[in-house]
From TrEMBL:
It comes from Actinomadura harenae. It holds the Pfam family HTH_31. This is Transcriptional regulator. GO terms for molecular function: DNA binding. Residues 34-88 form the HTH cro/C1-type domain.
Amino acid sequence: MITGAVDVTQELAAFLRTRRERLDPHDLGLPARRRARRTPGLRREEVAELAGVSTDYIVRLEQARGLRPSADVVDALARALRLTPDERAYLFDLARQRPRDAGRPADTAEPPLARLVTDLSPLPAMLMNHRYDILAWNGEMAKLLLDFGTLPPRRRNAMWLCLMHPRTRELYLDRERVAREGIAHLRTAWAAHPQDQALSDLITECLTHDEEFARLWAEREVKVNGRGRKMMRHPDAGVIAVHFETLTPLQDPDRLLVIYRAADDESQAALDRLYAR
């Protein structure tokens, strides 16, 4: 359960443990051991050897005994555990070794960005922050997903809507993949914004009230997914396939500009019918 700020010591321990356990020793060219392995993945001493640290150091990290590894050690652990670029960034965030902007949270849409969202019509577009709070949207996005203006501000959150709202919960044909990718992004945001109480409250609510979220959150997947494809079954327009692209303004790096476009001619025709209603 998440209460208040991120418990980085416990999360760092769990993350290192799960990444160690998923590795196959044979894939790393490690010698076979006579004694059968009692646990999956690498042993702690093997990780220690690959990272150039002591086994006791790995033990203390995985037991959440308050260590704060240096940037060099984090880099060595990332290489030893074969972390992806997103996982590596997440590990640096947990170790507090990546500099962060200490400015105000991104809770509002700056006027130029809000105007840009409108100007992107007829492409559906919306602006979100790192929590997936929806800060601005155009009419096409409202018709495709939901009229966010009818919701209280605290419920204008893409993750909450995907999990909890009756209409958007049933919108995606590939719903588990959409939820999995969203949760993987949310975990990176959680590590990067440890003092964001609103984000912690959102995750706690989802963990408490949605079994699917709790199951996927426990898998500790970490990924920032900036583009892809989604399949929707719209109640008025039928099946629609869209490609999405997520852009980050250079001056506002905690904002996410999401743009949809039809993935095929049939989907474009369905969108045209929807917008004409």
